[in-house]
Amino acid sequence: MKFLVVGNWKMNPQSLSEANRLFDSVGAEAEKNKNVQAIICPPFIYIPVLAGLSAFAKGYDGLAFGSQDCFWEEKGAFTGEISAAMLKDSGCEYVILGHSERRRYFGETDETLNKKIKAALLAGLKPILCVGENDEQRKNGKTEDVLRNQLENDLKGVSGPNPQVPSSKFQVPVVAYEPVWAIGTGNACEPKPALSAVLFIRKILTRLFNRQNPENFQILYGGSVNAKNAVGYVKTGGINGFLLGGGSLDPKEFGEIMKTAGNLKSAGFEL
Ligand code: PGA
Question: Which of 95, 238, 233 is nearest to 173 (CA)?
């Protein structure tokens, strides 16, 4: 299992030429750190251009594409939506689903997410499912309840006794622990509580997927990760990657974070 460094560009940058420049710099950093898997998640509209360039002209190793969302239907009258298969066809291997900004601003619910996760898996995309508590829930000691509820509802039927589609079709999604209060605030969750949450997520996934080995799940941390604090999470040995927002828009920062991850052996995982 390679350590994942996922860059969520969100609604940035503002033009295709800037996106090209950013991608060039990030691709060069990925080339230098091939023992880490970089995944770039640009706005939809840039994906085919950048993925096309990388596949046919630039070919950066160690770099894959993801999108920031997808729709659950395969085709039809759904104005403004983009299917998982279209993303796959445009060069994506991953899709971020359930980011807190989508849950908060765009009415994403556990029910819609559940449909999206199944659609993504069926189309051959690997979902990166985001879960995490908000500040109020944290202060009320509800973190584990929130994580359990989100995982159980978002992954209903993805594995287990009564799947809507054959379970052989499904891979296990990547999960990102993203405490909402830590996203874009500069107030990162310390490595120790982040690791506890990740271990809790691991326990829930092990039960939901009825797996023997909890180490098989790939679980990331996201929320104000930067070049300085990245080392603390990698050193825990139990966190298998990062989901970066701001840090993915600065190629130097992104490169430093990849280097830190690549230089440190996370116990039990091949980096
Ligand atoms: P941040 O964002 O790194 O800017 O805190 C993380 C995220 O949105 O996943």
Answer: 95
Residue of 115, 79, 77 whose CA lies nearest to 97: 115
Marked catalytic residue, from 99, 108, 133, 253: 99
Mean pLDDT, 10 residues at a time, over the chain (271 residues)? Answer: 95 97 92 92 96 67 92 98 96 96 96 96 94 97 98 87 50 93 97 97 92 84 97 94 97 94 62 43
Give the active site residue among 29, 101, 178, 253.
178
Is 99 labeled as catalytic in the residue annotation? Answer: yes
Q: What's the pLDDT score for residue 215?
A: 78
Ligand 1 neighbours (beta carbon < 6 A):
8, 178, 183-184, 222-225, 243-247
* Closest residue by CA, ligand 1 atom 2: 245
Q: Is the peptide bond before 214 cis (omega within 30 degrees of 0)?
A: no
* Overall pTM > 0.90: yes
Separation between Cα atoms, residue 38 and residue 23, nearest integer Å: 12
Q: How far apart are CA 141 and CA 127, in angstroms?
A: 28
Cis omega (within 30 of 0) for bond into 42:
no
Q: Helix, strand, or coil here: 71? A: strand
